[in-house]
Amino acid sequence: MSETLTLAKGLNAGLRRAMEDDPKVLVMGEDVGRLGGVFRVTDGLQKDFGEERVIDTPLAESGIVGTAIGLALRGYRPVVEIQFDGFVFPAADQIITQLAKMHLRSLGAVTLPVVIRIPCGGGIGAVEHHSESPEAYFTHTAGLRVVACSNPADAYTMIQQAVASPDPVIFFEPKRRYWDKAPVDVEAPREAFPPLHEARVVRAGEDVTLLAYGPAVKTCLEAAEADDRSIEVIDLRSLNPLDIGAVTASVERTGRCVVVHEAPVFTGFGAELAARITERCFYRLEAPVLRVGGFATPYPPSRLEDHYLPDLDRVLDAVDRTFAW
Amino acid sequence: MTIDSVRGATGSGLEPELVQLLTPEGERVAHPDYPLDLTGDELRGLYRDLVIVRRVDREAVALTRQGELGLWASLLGQEAAQIGSGRALGPHDMVFPTYREHGVAWCRDVEPIKLLGLFRGVDHGGWDPAEHGFHLYTIVIGSQTLHAAGYAMGIQRDGVLGTDRAGAAIAYFGDGATSQGDVNEAFVFASVFNAPVVFFCQNNQWAISEPLEKQTRIPLYKRAQGYGFPGVRVDGNDVLACLAVTRKALREARDGQGPTLIEAFTYRMGAHTTTDDPTRYRLKAEEESWKLKDPIERLKAYLVRGEIADTAFLDEVEDEAKRVAADLRKACLELPDPGPEALFQHVYADPHPLVGEERERFAAYLASFEGATGE
C-alpha cells in the first residue's frame, strides 16, 4: 500500500517498523522522546514503545554514542540521533576510535549494529553549526558504512536496512528535504527493498552524468529538467561502500561527469569520485570530472548560504564547462 | 567511607581516611561497613594471584627489553587493586579495562598470552569479550567508561537486576582519565539512569609524568557526590579491602541501587610503559616510601604470622609463577606474525566490495614477486 509521506515521516515509519520487527532496536538521543526530535523524525515512538526503548539522553554526544556502543555490546541495536551535523564532533572520538574499530579489534568476535542518524546540509536559514556536511570525515574511516537518503521512499527503506546491518552505519538525512513528499510503499517486504549499497539512476540521459547524494540529488534533477541536453542523474545513496560500477557504467556512456555536493570541494567526497572515475574511464572521458560544492570556507551565515550552496545555475555552469573543454 | 560520612569534611585531601582491612605491616583490621570473612583457601588464593600476575608482568617487561614486545604497560604496584576487585566479580559481571588490567584479565581467565598479542603487534586484542566477561583493552583514555555505562543500561533493559542472573558492569580507569570528558559523561549517564555500573579508578598517582595535582583539587572519590552517587576511597595496596569494597559496590549495582565510584589509592611502581623514564619527573624517595606499602609483602606477612600459609606453600606459589612465566615466554616467541591477508580481515562484519577488491589486488601484487630471483 502506497502512502504519501514526507521524508521525515518516511524515516519515522521506517523506524517504527524496525522497532516492531525487533525488540532489541532502541532509539536514543537528545529530545527524541517526549518531543519526538527537533525535526519530529521520532514523533510518537516513545509513546508507543516506552521510555526504555526511546531514550531521552543527557545532552552529551560522546556519551550518547559511547553508551550506544555499550548497549550494542549487550545485544541491543541502538539508533542514535545526533541533533545537528555540527554536533557530531564531540562524538567523533567514540565513532572513529571505538565504533569503527571494535569489530577488527576483537578479530570479529564483536559486532556493533549501531546507526548514527545525522541531519545534514544547509538551506534552512540556521545559525552556525546547523548546516554542515561532514560526510568525508566518516567515509575516510574504515569500519563505518556511510549512506545518505534523498527522498521519502529511500528514507523508509534505507533506515530499516541500516538498522539491520551488523556494521555501524552513519546515516545522513538531508534536512532541507525533510518536508518533501512522495509516495512510499509502506507494506513492501524487506526483500523487495533495493540493496542499501546500490546507487540508482534517478534520471536517464546520454550527454553527461551528474553524481549526487542527499540534498543535492533534487538540485541535480531540477538542473537536468531545466536544460536541453540529455543529463543523467545518479543518486549514489551509499558513499561507503561506493557503487563504483553504477558510476562507471554511466560515465562510460556519457563521457562527461560532474559531481555535486554541499560539502567543500577541496578533499571532499567528489575528489574520490573524480579520481576513481579517471582511473576507470580515462579513455572515455571527453573532459575532466568537474566538481560543484561548497567553497574552501566555513559554512557561511544563513543570509549568504544561497551563494554557498550548489544551485541549478552552478550545476549547469559546470555542465557547460565540461562541454566547452 | 561513603560520601555521606565525609559531608562537611574540609577536603584537604592530604591524608584522607582509606578503607583498609590489612595494614602495610600485615595487621588485620576491621571496618564497620566492610566485614570480610575469608577462608584460608581463599586467602592463599589471593596470594597466589598476586604473585603470579606480578611474575607475568615482570616477564612481559623482560620480553620487551629483549625486543619481543613493542611495548608493555606494567601493573607493578597495582596488583592488589586488580586482584581484589577482580576476585569480587561474579559470572554475569562485565569488565571494561584499560590497557593495564592484566591482573583483572587473570581473574577472568584470559590467558596471559592473549594480552601479549596487542603489545607484540600481532593483533589489537582478539579475545572474545563475551566469553570472559572481560572487554577488549581500550587505549584511548576513558572511552571504555561510556561503554560500561551503556552496557549497564542494557543490563537494566534485560530486566535481570535483583535476580540471580543479574550482573553489573565495572569500568577501570586511572587518575588521569578522570579529567576526560568521556569519564564525566559516563558518570552523568550512569547516575541519571541509575545504571548498574561500578567505576573503579586506580589512582596510581601518576598520569605518565603528571602528578595527581594536575588532574584534581579534591580527592577523586569525592567527585562522586557531585554526580549523585556514592564514592569511596580504598587502600589500593590492600587486596582484602579492594575485594570487600568492590564486592559491596557490585552487589548494590546488581540489586538495582545504581553506580559507585571506587578510588583505589595505589602507586605505579614502574614506568608508565616500557618507553617511559620516571627518573625525569619523580623522586626515588617517593618510590621507596611506597615500597613499604607493597601489596604482596603485607599479605604474605599476614599469612605467615597467622599460620595460614607455610614456607612450602610460598615456595609452591613461586614455582608455579615461574612456570607460568616460562610458558608465557615460550608462547610469546612462538606467536606467528599474521600474514598480509590479515590486513583485510574483520574490517566489516558483512562483505565490503572495496576491502575485497584491495585484498585481491594486494594478493596479486605479492604473487607477482613469486619466483623472482632478486637480481
UniProtKB/TrEMBL annotation, chain A:
Matches recorded under SUPFAM superfamilies: Thiamin diphosphate-binding fold (THDP-binding), TK C-terminal domain-like
Gene3D superfamilies: 3.40.50.920, 3.40.50.970
Cofactor(s), names only, from the UniProt record: thiamine diphosphate
EC number: 1.2.4.4
Residues covered by the Transketolase-like pyrimidine-binding domain: 5-180
Pfam families documented for this protein: Transket_pyr, Transketolase_C
Entry annotated with the keyword Glycosyltransferase: no
Domain of life (superkingdom): Bacteria
Keywords: Oxidoreductase
Family annotation (PANTHER family): 2-OXOISOVALERATE DEHYDROGENASE SUBUNIT BETA, MITOCHONDRIAL, 2-OXOISOVALERATE DEHYDROGENASE SUBUNIT BETA-RELATED
Name of the protein: 3-methyl-2-oxobutanoate dehydrogenase (2-methylpropanoyl-transferring)
Native species: Actinomadura parmotrematis
UniProtKB/TrEMBL annotation, chain B:
Cofactors, names only: thiamine diphosphate
Domain Dehydrogenase E1 component: 50-326
Keyword Disulfide bond: no
UniProt cross-references to SUPFAM superfamilies, sorted A to Z: Thiamin diphosphate-binding fold (THDP-binding) (SSF52518)
InterPro entries: Alpha-ketoacid_DH_E1_comp, DH_E1, PdhA/BkdA, THDP-binding
Keyword list, A-Z: Oxidoreductase, Pyruvate, Thiamine pyrophosphate
Keyword Cytoplasm recorded: no
PANTHER family for this protein: 2-OXOISOVALERATE DEHYDROGENASE SUBUNIT ALPHA, MITOCHONDRIAL
Protein name in UniProt: Pyruvate dehydrogenase (Acetyl-transferring) E1 component subunit alpha
Gene that this sequence comes from: pdhA
